[in-house]
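== Sequence entry ==
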Amino acid sequence: MQTKFIFITGGVLSSLGKGLAAASIGVLLKARGLKVTIQKLDPYINVDPGTMNPFQHGEVYVTEDGAETDLDLGHYERYLDAYMTQRNNFTSGSIYNSVITKERRGDYLGGTVQVIPHITDEIKRCITGVATNEDVVIVEIGGTVGDIEGQPFLEAIRQLRGELGKDNVLYIHLTLVPFLRTAGEVKTKPTQHSVKELRSIGIQPDIILCRSEVDLSKDIKDKIALFCNVDKDAVFTARDVKSIYEVPLEFYSEGVDQKIAIMLRLPAKNAALEQWKTLVYKLENPQGRVTIGIVGKYVDLKEAYKSLHEALIHGGVANDVAVDLVYVNSEEVQPRNVADKLKNLDGILVPGGFGSRGVEGKIEAIRYARENKVPFFGICLGMQCAVIEGARNVIGLDKANSEEFDLTTPHPVIYLMTEWYDFRSKCVQKRGKDSAKGGTMRLGGYPCEVKTDTKAFDAYRETDITERHRHRYEFNKAYFKQFEEHGYVFSGLSPNGELVEIVERQDHPWFLGCQFHPEFKSNPMRPHPLFREFIKAAKVNKETSK
């Protein structure tokens, strides 16, 4: 079967959930026995989101091959239970960078380089290049129809229908149908204008997904179909739901996958969604609750911790408990108020991050968790803060710190490793203090050897694992013995023993920090082992502290 392409655009406003819509459609098509992958095209000029502030863009998601990508790729991986790669995310910056590089090489033989055809041809190359042996490729176009920076992408996908054939290309438009409470009715005009904007550049949507807080009546759907020139059975309600994992089931009940199958002439087969039904049932019927405190500096934007949030929910599903998240601003945590800030928490998690802002509050939170035997989970910078806290308050190295925060510290327990062996590329990597910010970190999947008789091994039940990284600084092995002598266990190391990956404490119910980001490899059907065990420890803590 020739690969089919589904293009998803958004209208009216941003943050309607195109990524979740794409992932949910992917779930339905995969459940019908099809091979599916999803691609995100972002209109911004950054080459990738790696140097962008999470307050502007949300989480930077890291793939197994080390690409720093849009957070929607996390939805794709979690929903499809499949790995995405660099080929699954392109930006205007990466597209223009590729075209300009070719122009400098002379690839265009002296011709004038223009948006059409050169930029649009590069976009089309990236789209078709993601298809290897997939039956269906779903492509999400970032931004909102009408944005000036998104026009080359829309022009490219307009051209592809003529090149690939109408039976192989489908356009889905996600729009907003607001419900006006004062009038007691929904309004279709924003959708009409959005489709009009899309049609003005030559794209007629085949299917319209209407994001709404209420179910749309047949009359409303028929009205939208009439004014937007689509089939009456091609307008669907994308209703607000309590859990994002309900979306595939909602789309299925609306018949979205059936209409897609008919329009693309896909094999007729019912979607097998038993796992998703079980998942939603567990989410709606927990046997208990635990409260987890996330101590970080991006607490005002929950999207900055999207994968982390979902991984904690997955850990709750594995333990039949609902997970209530309490976000604590680390900049506000001090010795005098830490007990008040962190009281009534069943577990404390310190996530990754960059920069010195809020670090002392994280260290204070870790001290509280260690001394009061509250289950603690430190991720990336969270692990490094646990090392700093231990150096200061357990070993007695009062001025211990990370070189990231204090270059003059007499005890750099965390330091900038300038040279290391990269197990993925099979060569030595080098970096320095003056290296460029973008793409110079230890990124993507790296191997780790787990020691037996440790909390880490109890979770993984295997000694050889691979986890994803995104950081520049490492544990300084010059302090290895001192930490071991004071009750710390280095339960995960790189295969050559040079890099510390996991650190634990012996005298604590559950105190574990990892240098990698386990949240990137968790999905609702297979909760990550460390999140499963962390929530289990929090559940036990709650039960025993009653």
